[in-house]
Amino acid sequence: MRIAVTGSIATDHLMTFPGRFADQLVADRLHTVSLSFLVDQLDVRRGGVGANIAFGMGQLGTGPILVGAAGADFGEYRSWLDRHGVDTDSVRISETLHTARFVCTTDADHNQIGSFYTGAMSEARLIELKTVADRVGGLDLVLIGADDPEGMLRHTEECRSRSIPFAADFSQQIARMDGGEIRILLDGAAYLFSNEYEKGLIETKTGWSDAEILDRVGYRVTTLGARGVRIERVGEDPIEVGTPDEERKADPTGVGDAFRAGFLSGLAWGVSLERAAQIGCMLATLVIETVGTQEYQLRRGHFMERFTKAYGDDAAHEVRTHLG
Q1: What global pTM score does this model have?
Q2: Which of 150, 198, 246, 249 is least surrounded by CB atoms within 10 angstroms?
Q3: CA-CA distance, 11 to 180, in Å (whole number)?
């Protein structure tokens, strides 16, 4: 099963300031702020929802096709993804813009000052899915992840016009989209991904009830945090899957992307939706135990040991045949 993952590609530059921002601010001079903070730590991490999801799928061996836009500085990041099983040949490289970047400084009180540079991400709207499909011999599913909003709309419309099944996954972009755009992006989706809060926001912005949205999509997949995930379809009982026990909680960033990577890998393997959700929850657990969205290691033996403990021998036997 050939799955294309569209979405943002970015790097995060995360800095730590040992003092307090508040101590550097003068109340009657806030209209002319000019400050520089000497930081004592810098972490540069790979990120972007499209790249995070594709990385997870690559770790599971399902050969995802990453579709997004990056800058000429993407070379090292591309090599990293290539080494981890991601097809990056459909990433558009901008001639003028850098790869999207998030720069953030955190103080001793965990207050943050950050900036997000969209950069090359704005060129995602120039990517045609037909070119991607022709290169790989057709597409069986396209995930429309958070990206340049116009690009998300274009990819969705192209999937409809070419009868390519697609999954809608607005995540971070839902806050800036209006109801009309969200209705366009979800109508006819084979899968609609969201967390619990986003689920309510989708209903509020579209003006559609839960039942009306279910009528417009194949499956509605809602992640429930520590409670796992719920999968709904019109006329069928909901499927609910819990999460494995965590060994530690290090960083929740990228957990949703990891779930999607596992779930989509399950679809690629042709397992049941329940099993796909279990794979997604297991991968998400590995990510929450690691600082960074692509810093976890998927050791097959360790993965299967914990998967067996969480979901039983029968489930583990089925997954093991695909995981290798």
Answers
A1: 0.92
A2: 249
A3: 31
